Amino acid sequence: MAAAARSTGAAEITRRLTAICGPSFARFAGAADEVAGRAARWVAVPGGADAAAEVLRLAARHDLTVVARGAGTKIDWGAAPARVDVMLDTGRLAGIGHQSVGSPVTEIGAGTPLRAVQSTLERTGRRLPLDPPSPGATLGGVLAADEAGPLRHRYGTACEQLVGLRWLDADGELVCAGTAEPPAGPAPVGLDVGRLLCGSQGGLGVLVSATMRVQAAPAGRVWVTRPVWTPLEVHDLVRAVLTARLDPAAVELDLPAAGSRPRRPVHPSLAAARANHPSTAGRRDDPWAARDGAGTLAVLLEGGPAEVSERAERLVTLFEGRASVAEAAPPWWRRYPFGPGDTALRIEVPITDLHAAVYALRDAAGAPVPVRGSAGLGVVHAALPGALPGDRVAAILAAVRGVLLARRGRCVVVNAPAPVRQAVDVWGEAAVIPRLRAAKDHLDPHRRLAPGRLPGGL
């Protein structure tokens, strides 16, 4: 705890937080109040932006660090902060601004659960084109982690759908970007500055609200799924889908690692072609190819019912009839391949090199690992067993990152057990560090907001 806080006393800090947030909304932190294994000292739940600003000003006066928390679905993602004095819970910074039915945007409080937003918009036939996998996530949490689901293929991430943003800097000053207008005070800054907060894990500011694009909910939705046997086959199928002008809303891949089934028959000429492909040359066998339907490629089509049906028929033909059409998503849709205790990875690579990245991960791990995500964008997640020691995970990361470096890709550790987190470089090479450092110096020069959470230890 900082010297100023020690001189004031923990009980007095608690009393002042209670005076700001109200009874029952400020307390000493409990066992569950931690960030990536780092325990907090206090929890404050301010009732609005003004109260949140007061919490930040109190922290500034007593040299306390602050980490914002929404629903906590991704509180352990990324690097552990150097210190957590006050955990600022944004649960009361919630609500949906009143907008006319035809408005293309809506303002949403950072602490609003995304489910509640979608349910409210659904009553007027609209939606946010966002579908992150984290159940119960708040909009602020989705933005802070730059989390996205299958719909990012057509509509981009939540950050890309921003038209305005309001946040508090480390001194408790309200900052507005884009179309977000402050009730009084300085003019808004550029939205490019606001978008720096996306993925910052609260290291650049405490989100208050975001103005997002909304759209009419599609009248028709179908999922066309096809079994796949190897990452190389996925590469060819995705390329075919993207060049067929089918306008997919999402192109998702699920490659599980478990389960062994009879070998799928392969024509000798096809087997020879695969053996000579650069990504598989030198391999005696491909474990994925030894299972019948080892994985699934799923394509979501949206639009009017008639034209969706026509596009689905074209896609089934493109898949040579080895596909099925359903009005419900596959059970793995919008789910991460990792679970509690796993080491979770995110791989980003040009789609032309996705198969090479998956093979590189398989080679480094010594066996196939679960891979799932947006094959149409080259953004997927993978899971390594949590029991793997830190030095082994570090070796796997080094091998995979070496392959990705030449392909303009990257691999980051989303989450991991504490021993692994301490042994590995979570971020790897991050070209954005100079820009983030400049933003940190401007918005949080004293390093009070989630210190150490950003790449480069910022």
Instruction: Count every beta strand, where a strand is a DSSP E run of 2 or more residues.
Output: 20
**Overall average pLDDT:** 88
Q: What structural category do the secondary elements indicate?
A: alpha+beta
Biggest sheet, spatial arrangement of strands = 16-13-15-14-18-19-17-20
Tell me, what's the shape? globular
Distance between the termini: 19 Å
- The proportion of residues forming helix, as a percent range, comes to 25-40%
Radius of gyration: 24 Å
Segments where pLDDT lies below 50 for 5+ residues?
259-271, 273-292
Strand content: 15-25%
Q: Figure out the total of helices.
A: 14
Biggest β-sheet, characterized? 8 strands, antiparallel
What can you tell me about this protein's structure?
Helices cover 30% and strands 21% of the residues. It is of the alpha+beta class. Helix 2 packs antiparallel against helix 3, helix 8 runs antiparallel to helix 11 and helix 11 packs antiparallel against helix 12. The chain has an eight-stranded antiparallel sheet. It has a four-stranded mixed sheet with strand order 1-4-6-5. A four-stranded antiparallel sheet has the order 7-11-9-10. About 7% of the residues have low confidence. The chain has 14 helices and 20 strands.
